[in-house]
Specification:
single chain; 182 residues; alpha+beta; Cyclic Phosphodiesterase, Chain: A; 4-stranded antiparallel β-sheet; 32% strand; Cyclic_Pdiesterase; 2H_phosphoesterase_YjcG-like
């Protein structure tokens, strides 16, 4: 699967073993870093001058926060199974999602196709039928690195991805508000 368009993402670093599995199992991994999607599709590039100041202001009001791995799960799609690291919803993550979704209603998340949005990091997309060996490799790697699967979230990136083009262009990077030191 190839991604096309603009998205707001929270980039995260995965342990090397999981990143290797992601690069092997998810074709879009060559286009995007490991991440939690905040909003896709998002505003087209001609809207950059209008959207950028709004994003900076909205994201800058939300304090940095921590997310952590909850479980390995999957989405059953007609032709494939998408395996992902589900992350625990935190009040700050929910606030970030809803603040952006509510402000930019012209761009419904996933074009309004899903009733529920599950915060996650995609690891692999496997065509049906999925071999037990592939699933076992994912489970083993996740269990080995479970203690490393937590992240301090301090920014949101606005990225552009084009079909067949490796990597993505960063249209903007928006820092969250630093927590006050007490």
């Amino acid at each position: 699967m190839s991604i096309d368009g603009n998205a707001l993402i929270i980039p995260v670093a995965l342990p090397e073993a999981l990143e290797r599995l992601r690069l092997e199992g998810d074709p879009s991994a060559r286009q995007l870093p490991a991440h939690v999607t905040v909003h896709f599709p998002f505003a087209d590039e001609p809207k950059t001058k209008i959207v950028t100041p709004e994003l900076k202001k909205l994201v800058g009001r939300i304090e940095t926060f921590r997310i952590q791995f909850d479980c390995l799960d999957h989405f059953d799609m007609p032709d494939e199974v998408i395996y992902y690291l589900k992350v625990s919803s935190t009040p700050q993550l929910v606030t970030l999602f809803h603040t952006i979704w509510n402000k930019f209603r012209a761009y419904p998340p996933y074009e309004g196709k899903h009733q529920t949005i599950v915060p996650h990091i995609t690891l692999a997309r496997y065509a049906r039928p999925v071999s037990e060996e592939k699933v076992a490799r994912l489970l083993e790697a996740v269990e080995q690195h479970r203690h490393e699967l937590h992240w301090e979230i301090s920014e949101v990136e606005w990225v552009n991805v084009q079909p067949g083009v490796p990597g993505c262009r960063i249209l903007g990077s928006f820092p969250l508000k630093r927590k006050a030191i007490r």
